[in-house]
């Protein structure tokens, strides 16, 4: 699944207006958090998620790729290890912590950014306001822990843009879907999946409430 902003620019850091850059990042992050909440409620904590971003000045349009993952793989440290081992096998630089922790939207240079979200053991349900006359009930929010890792990429570095998909396909034993072209759906299948997702996500979609 892709999270794609309206702003047409190759990287977040290339958005020169600070307010616009931060608001773009914030909205993308809100969608990611809403997806976490949906996964936590629908799977009762059985699913975590991995999100990655390839940020290169030569890119075309910012986007994040979001993938639900069995929470057990995250808890056992296998997701973290899989990315680090594959990077080492390909002679890539080592993963490191982000430098722009105060403002993640301003992370400089070219990089592969990885977020690994592990859900809490139980779903935390909060009710910030009393139930209204419109029947609005308690809001379920995602809880858990998240790790962010960064793989620095030089401007001339030859990087496989399918790196994230390749790592996760191997880890989840889905090698036959390592290349996205091998998993192309028919139009009917895409429409059915889109309709099912909209139905599952609508109570978590903040854009429908604003």
Folded structure, characterized:
With 210 residues, the chain is α+β, with helices and mostly antiparallel strands. It has one domain. It is built from five helices and seven strands. The strands form two sheets. It has a five-stranded antiparallel sheet with strand order 1-3-2-4-7. A hairpin with an 8-residue loop joins strand 2 and strand 3. Helix 3 crosses helix 4. The longest helix is centred in the N-terminal third of the chain and has 26 residues. It starts with a strand and ends in a 9-residue tail after the last helix. About 9% of the residues have low confidence.
> Tell me, what's the shape?
globular
Contiguous uncertain segments of 5+ residues? 123-140
Cα-based radius of gyration, to the nearest Å: 18 Å
Distance between the termini: 23 Å
- Helices and strands: which structural class? alpha+beta
> Order of strands side by side in the largest beta sheet?
1-3-2-4-7
The tally of beta strands, per DSSP, is 7
Helix fraction bin: 25-40%
Provide the succession of SSEs. EHEEHHEEEEHH
Main beta-sheet annotation = 5 strands, antiparallel
How much of the polypeptide forms β-strand, as a percent range?
15-25%
Domain Cwf19-like C-terminal: 2-76
Domain Cwf19-like protein C-terminal: 150-206
GO molecular function, one term: RNA lariat debranching enzyme activator activity
InterPro entries: Cwf19-like (IPR040194), Cwf19-like_C_dom-1 (IPR006768), Cwf19-like_C_dom-2 (IPR006767)
